[in-house]
Amino acid sequence: MAEHDGSYKHFFSHPEMVADLLRGFIAEDWVTQIDFASLEKVNGSYVADDLREREDDIIWRVKHQNGWLYIYLLIEFQSTVDRYMALRILVYTGLLYQDLIKSKAITDQQKLPPVFPVVVYNGEGRWWAARDLADLIEPLPGSLARYRPSQKHWVIDEGQLARETTLPENNSFADLIRLETSPKPEAMRQIFAILNHRLQDPRYASLRRALVVWFNRVLIKRLVPGTQVPEVNELQEINNMLAERVVQWTEQWKQEGLQQGLQQGLQQGLHQVLERQITRRFGPLNDETRKRIQTADLDQLERWADNILDAQSLDEVFKD
Length: 320
What we know:
The chain is an alpha/beta fold. Helices cover 50% and strands 13% of the residues.
């Protein structure tokens, strides 16, 4: 998972990807009021008071149309749901503010800049954790309620977006989500062909390279686990490779599926035969014995089926 997270951080070190995330997935009025050409990556390494370093945070600033109002994007990447993400976001925001003060990025006459935290989540289930710190804190009675801290963050749940919405076209982040959530190599080939065409301009060279590295280190391992595939060096090579291998991999998956189905059928048959034989020899099965049989693997079932021929008791059936 470290390689996956590293690849995502690499993606969002490119202004094109950050701009597409904001334009396509953040339904906020201020997004239409910023100058995307001013996107600037900010140093993301700072040290807390307890000397624990936080490195590689992806933090950007961008100019607002009303002047030099800076909006910081604090981007976290999650493949599992973290119940306390809202608290982590508050801590990260505080560390960011401390760093801005210590580095004198703001003067004594300036207020702290707004922060817009974004969590990019690519796990299997829905994101269910609180999106506001206040929801993690026990409600306080009466006037004490005003002292309950609150900070919201935006969650981009890739799986939910892919299932329930129409992803925007001509958007690199949307294409990344499609690649993350599509299991079919033919669909991936089409997406990489689109990316190869859209990112032709030399200014996208670094982003093209990031996509190639992600394909080699993450995506291809998910597509055909355990298979040695030569690394590619360019987006066009990915398109060519997928075009050549789609039929081969599809046939391989069919065979693996047939083999898995045959093994599952054999196990199910042995479950039934063993339960019937034990019942005839030693009487009705209790729930514990039935569960033991149902959860056994094929090797165990075959050993027990051999043992029952000479077993004088139920314990002798299950001996190794």
